[in-house]
Amino acid sequence: MDLERLYREQCGRVVATVIRLVGDFDLAEEAVQDAFAAALEQWPVQGEPANPRAWLVGVARHKAIDRIRRRTNFEAKRAELEALAVLDEPSDPPDSAIEDDQLRLIFTCCHPALAVEAQVALTLHTLCGLSTEEIAHAFMVPVATMAQRLVRAKKKIRDAGIPYRVPADEVLAGRLEAVLRTVYLVFNEGYAASAGDTLVRRELCAEAIRLGWLLCELKPLPEARALLALMLLHDSRRGARVGPDGEVVTLEEQNRRQWDRAQIGEGLALVEAALREGGAGFYALQAAIAALHARAEAAEHTDWRQIAVLYDILRRRYPSPVTELNHAAAVAMAEGPARGLGLLDALEVSGDLRSYHLLPAVRADLLRRLGRRHEAAAAYRQALEFVTSAPERRFLERRLAEVEASRG
Amino acid sequence: MQYVLLIYENDAEFAKLSEAQKGAIYREYGEYTQNLVKNGHMRAGAGLKPVDTATTVRVRGGKTLTTDGPFAETKEQLSGFYLVEAKDVDEAIALAARIPSVRHGSVEVRPTITAPSS
Asked: Which among A31, A253, A275, A402 is least surrounded, fewest beta carbons within 10 Å?
């Protein structure tokens, strides 16, 4: 019995239920840790219980009672013990109750009263069962910083009175937006790190997708479906994004036979459902663009015209400098690099993407396609000033070398 | 749980409004306060006179230092507060979201320290 895998899969559910039973985040988490430790000791000897989750929940509840008894403040202890005694709940709640518990937990972890980075950390730690070290590593911050972030987040939940429940219908849409944003952040953290990075990065994508599936089960609203579709479609390319030497392989150059076609199928079905039910939402538009890439058997069959149209809708409804950049790149592919360059000039003037390496990188790419190598080299050098990730740096250096070598 | 709702807005902007506009806002506040009372949330509250009526007091090294104006110059100034009873922060946020000034200013929602039981 792989207890580590069980932990990953069940931890969130067990914690969610125990939080409801004991009414305290910290207490519940510690009690569940104790329960898993007990499992590690007892199961190899006594054999695995018929219902591991029920066992864990039951043991965690007892551990929680133990912890309360060990507290020194008698008054607080008495009140909490009374509260626990009243709970004559079965340790094996029906599936629907577990789902409710998980939903409560997601909404609590992603409460807007918590800073976004705290939401992300708490979601990964409590819902997904990642350790503080793993999360710290994934976000490239010191472990002590991440540990503090988690401590403060749980303190804020306690001190500010953040409730442990699914938000009321009137505010649900807005609160779901926050949850989706956090989940997408987790995904992007894992996805943006491409070649040469550790297993934890791929795990982030996997966790985000798992959360996406969970949300779609619990609250199948169109934008939740759309986000899941978007993540599945992006992630389907994971096998092709890194070359044998660990280098970045662009979308254009990827071997599409290495794309996960089964996952693409799932993503396409979801994006169709999302567009049908919810229209052109933020994630739905992006998922539709990803779908167009996924449908193209070869790079040259990509429907860039349609992609440009979608980016145009996206930039009007949800304006952002990055969307403008993506729009310009799509227009360049659909109508030629010169057209794209014109749009980039306008972006340059606005100054919104001042130190974002992708603006000069896209410009460099278009200039390269036009054969304007001297200018392309200058743009690649500019991009290199701002690039932050090592794999992307190597990619830009490679392009720069190509462009400089081909000059007479 | 008890929360203080601290209302911040730009004094200068408010001063520019016409008497009619100010009157409308006061009426809205009156309705809002009445609702708080009716629904059992209201514990205390007051609108504050503009920040140029403020005086800041500090005592350092036994000396009382009194200065004209608020404790710090800020873009938005404290213009009023409510002390409310709410089930949790979600309820407090919902109450804060209905304060008239929140449409152009900000409301800070802060839980009060509860006295430890004896």
From this structure: A253
